[in-house]
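question for whoever is on the cluster today: can someone run the full assembly for these? two chains, 509 residues total. i dont have access anymore since they changed the login thing
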Amino acid sequence: MKIDYSLVTRRTFLNTLLSGWLASFAFGSFYSLYRFAFPTLGKEPDFVVLNPDDFLAIPTNSTKPFAWGGKVGLFFKKADSRMVALKGVCSHMECNITYKPEDRKFYCPCHKGWFDEEGRNVAGPPPKPLEFFDYRVEDKKLIVYRKGVKVELPKA
Amino acid sequence: MSCRRLKSWIEDRYDVDGIVELSRHKLVPVHSREIWYYTGGIVLFLFAVQFLTGMALAFYYIPYFEKAHGSIIEIVTKLNMGWFFRSLHHWGAQAAIFVMFVHVFATLLLKSYRKPRELLWISGFCLLVVSIFFGLSGYFLLWDERAFAAVRVATGGAGNLPLFGGFIKAFLRGGIDVTGETLVRFYAFHVSVLPILTLAIVGFHILLVQHHGMSVPISQTGKSKEVPFFPNILYKDLMIWLVVLGVVVTLATLLPPDIAKKADPLAPPPEGVKPEWYFLFLFQTLKLFPGKLAGMNGETIAIVLISLAVLFFFLLPFFDRQSGRGNKSPLFTAIGIAYLLYFVVMTIVGYLT
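^ ran it for u. tokens below:
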């Protein structure tokens, strides 16, 4: 059957073509910009390797910071000389914490949060305890690692 | 070319008389609440000051984490008038945000947002958000320990929003932590993304003001007379701008802002660290919430409640039906006063403690 007029007018055709072109152009530009602007995320390390001489001999009841990726880790020698490693970042708003030897507590100055020596959140807004790491000394290397992670150092 | 010839050259091509005639018809209502009209103009003027001083500072500022802090110290100590432009940029920003809050609360309490001006409220709110982000990003460019802690908390707080939180946080930080990459990103926001957004929204906002004319408060309808904008109101605007310029220049000269120690991602923030004053009410709210509340993370609850309160504020013109019909709307006056009181009291409490 032959119809007298086209079902798709020239105007409809052009409108569809051009709006389709514009829409896909806009979507493509937006999507690629979005992919570009959104960073490729790194992740927190599973372990870091430090020099034991720098950390094992610190005085009791004190801390020494080390770099845990972009965050701060703290080596902490308690008053009874036991040593632990922990992430020095408040569980509330990610501010760095500081150790107060006179109170034997960790303190976050941003919103006045307190943690005891075991990292328990004892006062202020922090919702969770601090995160502790495990560590061991191997071939004159101090390896600090996330709890439960198996560390295999590359053979030099 | 003489002045006369230049004038006729322009008049041959453009309808100058038409524009002059049009501007003569721009009328502004005058009444006892008129003073609040000028806050918008003051913000516009302060934006101009910020654009100029900002462009000047951008000639010398280095947006790289190892150099940023030092480059500001260079600007302040070694360049001709560097101390002045940096200080003026700081105080201009403080003043702009302060006057913007006054403008918002005046609009709120005079119900100028009511029909048909809902989009003016919406665009104004967007400008306030952009300006606060201007403040945060500009402040971070100092790369000192105070700014570092503030940006960690602010971007981390955004990370607590449900659904999009993690995405927003990573987008703002440019990674999982606040690092040198965050600095570059904030620089890009501060000198290119936000200024262009500001120009666009300010343009839209002013266009809408021209379209609707000034809102007359419900209590003043029928009591106001109209005067021409050119020159009556313009002269008043200019007088007020002169006073404002005097105030910010005086502050810039007598109270240059501090530069704290260079940021160190491994060091704890300084004792008693506080954000800028316009974040204090949020800061204080966060401190109110305990870590655990009814078995949930108190911080998340705080952030969600704050977001809801802000969302309600944003959509207020659509909830206030009474004033839209030209009736008094005491409920929304009370809500407006509640918002104002909360903001002022929490800011003062945050400042004093």
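summary bc i know u wont read the tokens: The radius of gyration of chain A is 29 Å. The interface with chain B takes residues 37-39, 41-44, 65-67, 69-72, 88, 92-98, 108-112, 121, 124-128 of chain A (CB under 8 Å).
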